[in-house]
Amino acid sequence: MCGIVGYIGNREAYPIILNGLKRLEYRGYDSAGIALYDGNDIQLCKTKGKVADLETKFSAGISTNGSLGIGHTRWATHGVPNDVNSHPHYSNSGNLVIIHNGIIENYETIKQELIKRGYTFKSDTDTEVLVNLIEEVMNHEDTKLGKAVQIALNEVVGAYAIAVFDKRKPNEIVVAKLGSPLAIGLGNDEFFIASDASPFLEYTKTAIYLKDEEMAVIRLGRDVKIRKIKDDQLVDPYIQRLKLNLEQIEKGGYDHFMLKEIYEQPHAIKDTYRGRLLANKGIIKMSGVDDNLEKFMNAQRILIVACGTSWHAGLVAEYIFEDLARIPVEVEYASEFRYRNPIITEKDVVIAISQSGETADTLAAIKLAKSKGAFVFGVCNVVGSTIARETDAGAYTHAGPEIGVASTKAFTTQITVLTLIALKLAKLKGSLSQSDYHYHLQELELIPQKVEQALKSDVHIQMIAETYMNARNFLYLGRGYNFPVALEGALKLKEISYIHAEGYPAAEMKHGPIALIDENMPIVVIATKKGHYEKILSNIQEIKSRSGKIIGIVTEGDENVRDLADHVIEVPETVESLSPLLTTIPLQLLSYHIAVMLGKNVDQPRNLAKSVTVE
Q: What is the CATH number of the domain that holds 192?
């Protein structure tokens, strides 16, 4: 949610900020704006809609001069999406300008106090309240901007990543972070500010990622000064060398990022197990696990906390850990886990899963688990993210940047990491025979090429998508390992096509959903030969007898389902525990093609944000 971009230096700020906002469009947003300082005054332009609309508005005659500027894409929390509520926001004097990602929970109380002191407000946002609170502190305390930001942030409750500047002092920008990501790119006497590194990759490969409750005064001609917001303690910045490149965040000839990322999965899965899986030697090397083997081996249970697609990956992991490693597993929505006073002990291992590593509810669940003494292991994609820093240990998925809002390669790479952990523990616990263990390793190593094979059904899937693009409802059914895949397939369709879809365990169909089935209802049935195959065939026959339209996801060469289904999509054969890595591929493609045919914005679906960094 929300994207922040800023620049201060010797270049023209406008093209840097505008292109940076375009690179952050994947985060999801409803409005956009840029403020530039040209040496005399601030040029502010903002609009409801897309960054392209903002660019058009600038081209109508608004000055784009200036080497200091900040830009923002907003995902509405306080105040409806419109031009006035869009960021950046001025203070009452017009001297301060701010952009803000997050939510100030006590903004109304602060707003009423500021109104008593003579302040007026044009927008309904919490952000305008914050910039005026900073101004009030500057006036009342007779202090500089950096100190005023620090004092003001100690008065607010909530989450934020902010960038603010004072036109009276155009050689500095002040930034701060709590709960929302913020990176500072370091150039040659120039600085870049962004929600992630993608907006400034062509300018610098070195960056500082602020930690929670840290702020920085970025001043030309000086090193970045970072302080703790609470106690004013100076912090030695950790400067990271960025490994991303521009090719990774461009579409590379694909029509959409989502399609690109679907097709990147063979490479992404291989990158995830590269250096970790030595199948020919029967070895799995994972430092985060190896260094904490006692915690895993003595775990009374594993608790998995996650949201959305990551939660579905956690459900697959529940089957894998319990089946292979014989460890009890519970999978929790992080958003509920944090509020229901869960029973957590020092004997628990908590695995937190998040693509971005910034998901607010998952971070809160991590803090709760750590406060109870549990060992917390993170699985995330973004190096240096908050979850990577807050957990006791962890493993990166190495999937590369995922720009499309609807996660695809995040799901398969998360399952890959969790499978590696489960197999490693299974071997150490002796819960899997040596032959089965080696067979699983060999099959996992073959998964990338089997995913490539599954992708060859793309044209066939497009034909199926055309048949059902106007359906108003879909039902997805799976059993065992593939029940979570049914949930994930339904989520993908909902996210990007806005068609209502539900995922169910196939056996639950008779407990209610069967009432929905008629000749207008497409039912996607995951019916691979491994695991409950005969039961799935019975379910398909029940659907057929009620005139439902059956789309079967089947193992290559399956004729039984072909005789019953209206359509079949084949995937290569593999062991049951790895089948979700293959069966999810056609579901991703089906959702993608239906959404494209309906003219939907596949990479930026309405109302959704890539990373939910507030509750």
A: 3.60.20.10
Order of all β-strands in the sheet with 183-186: 42-48, 31-37, 68-74, 3-8, 191-194, 183-186, 206-209, 239-241
Rounded to whole angstroms, how far apart are CA atoms 15 and 170?
Answer: 19
Beta strands per DSSP E along 299-420: 301-306, 329-333, 348-354, 375-380, 393-396
Q: Across the strands, what pairs with 351?
A: 304, 377
| 89-90 vs 68-74, strand pairing mode | unpaired
Q: Judge whether 34 and 54 are in contact, CB under 8 Å.
A: yes
Tokens representing residue 97 in the block:
């300008």
Question: What gap in Å lies between CA 316 and CA 329, rounded to an integer?
Answer: 11
Based on the fold, state whether residues 466 and 540 are members of the same structural domain: yes
Closest CA to 259 of 585, 609, 489, 608: 585
345 contacts: CB under 8 Å, gap ≥ 6? 300, 372, 373, 374
Mean pLDDT of successive 10-residue segments in the chain (615 residues)?
A: 89 95 78 92 92 92 93 83 91 96 89 95 94 95 91 91 95 92 92 91 91 94 92 89 68 84 94 90 92 93 94 97 95 88 91 89 91 94 83 90 87 97 95 95 96 96 96 92 96 95 82 77 90 80 82 92 91 96 97 96 75 52
Cα–Cα distances (Å) from 47 to 6, 85, 103, 301, in that order, read 18, 9, 20, 50
Report whether 406 contacts 496 (CB < 8 A): yes
Strand partners, 329: 302
CA neighbours closer than 13 Å in the CB half-sphere of residue 24? 35
Same domain, 293 and 364: yes
The number of angstroms, rounded, from the C-alpha of 514 to the middle of its chain's C-alpha atoms is: 34
User: For residue 497, which phi and psi values (nearest 5 degrees)?
Assistant: -110, -15
Domain hosting 77: range is 3-248
Pairing of strands 68-74, 31-37: antiparallel
Given this model, what pLDDT does residue 241 score? 84
**How many domains would you assign to the chain?**
3
Q: E-assigned strands of 116-237?
A: 158-166, 172-178, 183-186, 191-194, 206-209, 214-219, 225-228, 234-235
Q: 612 and 518: one domain?
A: yes
Q: How many CA atoms lie within 13 A of 101 on its CB side?
A: 35
Between CA 330 and CA 320 the distance in angstroms is: 12
Residues carrying an active site annotation:
2, 610
Write the burial class of residue 346 (CB in 10 Å: 0-12 exposed, 13-18 middle, 19+ buried): exposed
| Amino acid type, 248 | Q
At residue 115, what are phi and psi to the nearest 5 degrees? -60, -40
Last residue of a domain, one of 248, 274, 297: 248
> 588's torsion region: left (phi>0), alpha (psi -120 to 50) or beta?
alpha
Q: What is the pLDDT of residue 103?
A: 83
